[in-house]
Write a structure and sequence with these properties.
Blueprint (H helix, E strand, L loop, with lengths): L24 H10 L14 E2 L11 H7 L10 H14 L3 E5 L2 H12 L5 E4 L4 H9 L3 E4 L20 H11 L7 E4 L12 H13 L4 E4 L3 H11 L8 H10 L3 E5 L10 E5 L2 H14 L10 H13 L3 H20 L12 E5 H4 L9 H13 L1 E2 L1 E3 L1 H4 L15 E5 L7 H18 L6 E5 L10 E4 L1
Parallel strand pairs: 1-10, 3-4, 5-6, 6-7
Antiparallel strand pairs: 2-8, 7-8, 9-12, 11-12, 13-14
Helix pairs in contact: 1-14, 2-11, 3-11, 4-5, 4-10, 8-9, 12-16, 14-16
Bound molecules: pyridoxal-5'-phosphate (PLP).
The site of pyridoxal-5'-phosphate has 14 residues, from helix 4 and helix 5.
């Protein structure tokens, strides 16, 4: 039993449980080979601890399930949407709300209206579906994350921040009218689950507005970002999470949200906007792609659970436990010598694949190899956020070499105990001790097109 690190108070107890099992090692090896060394191809029943994602995997509360029973399933004018939209507007200050089935649904609707061919969207390490939707609408993403956010070891309290110099350069180079909008992702997923400071949001917004450019937030993990601001940024220690969240949104013209993270629901998404004209323009694509604009792919039950989840996620005790649990896993891994991205972000611990397997060449997917070994060793399912995920340059077709090649251990909300996370640490330590001198990685068996990490398969070299 590990005893070091911050002990957090867990502000809930279990009422319903779901059985899980650890397959014998020989069967795990059989399963991962049959899956083409791609962890997305595993059956969930063959996974002991599932750290693939924090998206839609959180445990709902008794209050959320109770609220769900009040769901109004009316096609139009659902009472549940009214409650959800009221809650979201009160929390964010954004008066107009459009529902979507999940984050990428919201991204498709918003980008289909905002992005014109050849326009750019500068931002901080756009999430993969966001990038894909901007490109699908004819736009290009320009990554303006600060340098510290691209290094796994450089310590910085807000590694998700945008570099204002890089942002200005992009705007100068393309011209303000060729900038569809600036996107700030809070917290920044691809860059390590790292927060963005309030000061950075304020400065980015002031600059963008001075050039007549709109600012949008991708707010999948807005409450976790707010907690980091409270903990780390001067002047915010005495503010409530709700006050911090409200200020964050004040710097934006609108947002998209995957509600599967900080909404703590299995499915759902939202768009919030300030402008009534834009709200009207979003209705038709919502009807085309998502559903009528008072449900957008969510059931009344989901909308009720989400309306309650948005209230629960602002609870400071919950956020302290949540961010504390992720930090605890990071501290334990570091104690065992596992190289991780520092400081630890809000929803995941990232193992640096290139440092974990220093002898595996960069183009042989070291982080994917870490994911495969963790499954073989402990039945743990992680996900690669690196060379495989980032894919090829759409103009040249060449493999993009990402700044970091990471294996992400993503922690579902309110699901796993310390014992579960200790098992993960033991598995990582065993792999590290036994295989540090491994010199070959993986090669594609079949390379999928587009977002390739979901479907590509590999062989061991
Ligand atoms: C920052 C961010 N934006 C957007 C999305 C897409 O959301 P969804 O999976 O609900 O489509 C995700 C999902 O992980 C995300 O992390």
């Amino acid at each position: 039993m590990r005893r070091t690190g911050n002990k957090t108070i867990v502000p809930f107890k279990a009422k319903i449980v779901e059985p899980i099992r650890l397959l014998p090692r020989a069967e795990r090896i059989e399963r991962i080979i049959a899956a083409g060394l791609n962890l997305f191809n595993l059956e969930s029943r063959d996974v002991y601890i599932d750290l693939l994602t924090d998206s839609g995997t959180g445990a709902m509360s008794a209050q959320q399930l109770g609220a769900a029973m009040m769901g109004d399933e009316s096609y139009a004018g659902s009472r549940s949407f009214e409650r959800l939209a009221e809650n979201f507007s009160r929390i964010t200050g954004l008066p107009y709300v459009i529902p979507a089935h999940q984050g990428r649904g919201a991204e498709r609707v918003l980008n289909s209206v905002l992005v014109k061919k050849h326009q750019i969207v500068p931002g901080n390490s756009h999430f993969d579906t966001t990038k894909a939707h901007i490109e699908f609408s004819g736009g290009r993403c320009i990554d303006c994350t600060i340098q510290a956010g691209k290094s796994s070891q450089e310590l910085h309290p807000f590694k998700g921040n945008l570099d204002l110099v890089a942002l200005r350069q992009a705007v100068e180079e393309y011209g303000a009218k060729h900038v569809a909008y600036v996107l700030i992702t809070v917290t920044c997923n691809s860059g390590g689950g790292q927060p963005v400071s309030m000061q950075n949001m304020r400065e980015v917004s002031a600059y963008a507005r001075s050039r007549g450019i709109a600012v949008y937030l991708d707010v999948a993990r807005f409450a976790e970002n707010a907690f980091f601001i409270k903990e780390r940024e001067e002047g915010y220690a005495d503010k409530s999470i709700a006050e911090i969240v409200f200020e964050m949104f004040s710097y934006a013209d609108g947002c998209t949200m995957s509600a599967k993270k900080d909404g703590i629901v299995p499915m759902g998404g939202l768009i919030g906007v300030r402008d009534q004209g834009l709200f009207e323009a979003l209705k038709t694509p919502t009807i085309l792609f998502e559903g009528f604009f008072t449900y957008g792919g969510m059931s009344g039950m989901t909308m009720e659970a989400l309306a309650t989840g948005l209230e629960e996620v602002l609870d400071e005790d919950y956020l302290r436990y949540r961010v504390g649990q992720v930090a605890q896993l990071g501290a334990w891994l570091e104690e065992e010598g596992v190289p991780i991205v520092r400081p630890v972000g809000g929803h995941a611990v990232f193992i640096d694949g290139r440092l974990f397997f220093p002898d595996i060449p960069e183009d042989e997917f070291p982080a994917q190899a870490v994911c495969v070994e963790l499954y073989k060793e402990g039945g743990v399912r992680a996900v690669e956020i690196g060379s495989n995920l980032i894919g090829r340059n759409p103009d040249t077709g060449e493999n993009i070499r990402p700044a970091m090649d990471l294996c992400r251990l993503t922690i579902p909300r309110r699901v796993y105990s310390s014992e579960h996370l200790e098992h993960v640490v033991d598995a990582a330590k065993t792999v590290l001790d036994g295989q540090h001198s491994r010199s070959r990685g993986l090669a594609f068996l079949k390379e999928a097109q587009g977002i390739r990490h979901f479907a590509s398969t590999f062989r061991e070299l």
